[in-house]
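Quick check before the chapter quiz. The format below is the same one you will see on the exam, so make sure you can read both the input and the output lines.
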Amino acid sequence: MIKKLIVSTLMLPIAGFAAASTPLTYFKPVKLTGTMDIVRSIHPNPIYKGERQPAIRLDKPISVMDDDLTDDIDDSEKNVKLIQLYSAEERTDRLYAKLLASKGKHVTINCSKLWHATNGHHTTAVLCTIDSARFGK
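Here is the expected output.
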């Protein structure tokens, strides 16, 4: 019993260090690495429901903090593993089309910003506005 208590006490700093990572903040550039995935829209309108949306399944989960406490839109999120990718020109954007066709491939995404879901078109809690993507490790 004493041995278990000593070992678990000694492991606390290691466990805390492994779980601790610096949270990211919304509306700032960030680089994400992971595997491309496709999510299906959960929008209530039948026109959009089930629409394919590119997403990145992160290599390591992230936390995103809301550093603007004056609004109630951008909630802080912990342990984020899946992020929907957004392009303002998604209907004509070749990169967006390539992302949709790259499910399962490893990718590094440069985001101009992370932002929180605000409506039915947003399938994940956190979204990334895409600047660029590089495939492969």
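If your answer matched, good. The chain has two helices and six strands.
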